[in-house]
Automatic annotation (TrEMBL):
PANTHER family per record: PHENAZINE BIOSYNTHESIS PROTEIN, PHENAZINE BIOSYNTHESIS-LIKE DOMAIN-CONTAINING PROTEIN
NCBIfam families per the UniProt record, alphabetical: PhzF_family
Protein name: PhzF family phenazine biosynthesis protein
Family listed: Belongs to the PhzF family.
Keyword Isomerase belongs to the record: yes
Keywords noted in UniProt: Isomerase
Entry superkingdom: Bacteria
Pfam families from the UniProt entry: PhzC-PhzF
Amino acid sequence: MDKVSYFIVNSFTTELYKGNPAAVCLLESTIPALTMQKIAQEIPVPTTTFIQKVDNVFFLRWFTPEMEIPICGHGTIAGAFLLWHQGIWPVESSITFQTVSGSLQANWFNKMVEITIKQYQLEEIECPYELEEWLGTKPTYVGKTDLDYIVELSHEEYIADFQPDFPAMKHFPVRGVCITSMSQEKGIDIVSRFFSPAQGIDEDHVNGSTHGALGPYWCKKLSKESIVSKQLSKRGGLLYVTPKVNDVAIAGSAVLILAGEILI
């Protein structure tokens, strides 16, 4: 039987058991998507990242235990960190990943991995009745991107204490719901949580892709060029977010916690 090397990397943290865990599988040859999906079901983490190097080009795909997904910030952070950590790619050189969503670039910056993702256009909308009922309160702001609802609430405590009704989300016409507010903690600008049962992830420990909308929204509102964002999930994590002209740079730390092999 063939084997695939895999690693567990916690993204957006410097602590062993914090942040968002991703499995990173390094492929020596192409394997079927169905096999990737089975591996993602077998490894108990929110996202499994598959990387195949062909010449000097890195091809990257992401799978949750339920499906292949078009973008995953923490999985990309984990993949780039591992390539540098294992000496597969020189740390002084940037990495360009080819994905189903286009090219993604990663750089080593201030002892963190910085990736550049798409800036998601955020359109303000009237809060749908079912969303307000789900929130249990009237939001300060509701916007919608191509992927998600972005909801600003008035108090950080509400973000931390919120108990979502996941079955009720099955009718929402979005990938997920991000709730956010200003932070009361010194050195932290905003807080958020992200829920996406449609992808097989009830609550994402730390979500990078939502910051393609959160970064520009909060930087404009706070009159800042960049923000520090804290995810208020049980594991938690920190993201350093800087909007550019057409995209958004997201930086975070990462730590390797496990290495092994899986039979295919």
